[in-house]
Amino acid sequence: MNTLINNLDHLMHSKRTNATQLQDDIGVPQTTTSRILNGTTVNPSDRTLKKYADYFGVSVADLRYNDLTNEENKSLLTPIVNSDNVRVKERRRELISIPIYSVVFCCGDGNKDFGFEEIKGYRDFEEEFFIKAGVRPEDFKLVCAVNDSMAPYINDKDEVGVILSDKELKDGQVYALLLDGDRMFKQVFLEGGGNLRLHSFNDKYPDKIITADNHESLIIIGRQYFRAGH
After folding, report:
1. pTM listed for this prediction
2. Bridge-partner residues for 212, per DSSP?
3. How many CA atoms lie within 13 A of 90 on its CB side?
């Protein structure tokens, strides 16, 4: 995670709020907050960040560049932690282990089923991770990226989290896909006439256009929500 993501995530946890509540409180769309937190939006505008900064009582510069999780910067968070609408309680954090799969494969002929195999390890997540994402642990899978088509956002062999229950395509979001049996992560754009454009962040890989003629060859595994590099 970069400093901005760490800080925003930390501040939201400190104030016991979430992306949906922030939409009501400061007018920033829930999708905007989610895209910042999952790294889809890598450089949000100062205008957007000022809404967060004013709400949490910090400066835009602090939000972008200062590690607010660091003990030396705890004084910046005092007004948040001491506010009346925050309930700070001590408890043992439950860790949930999610397997990391090396392979996603198509399971049959002429259907949209898929499966996972070859577990290479496990990654532990705190329970709050799933609460914030609004997803059950059983609907969240970790898979390995297989090339650099989405670099530098997703690199070869990165561990990437996918929400299986979130298959409804939203313009500009990144999804795990199977296309003609090939697994891939692509940014999906909804085009006119019901067409889809599958975009790679790496310019070496041309966009793929999905039309009504080849739509059946596309399987949507789920929306990308997390990534971890090596």
Report:
1. 0.56
2. none
3. 0
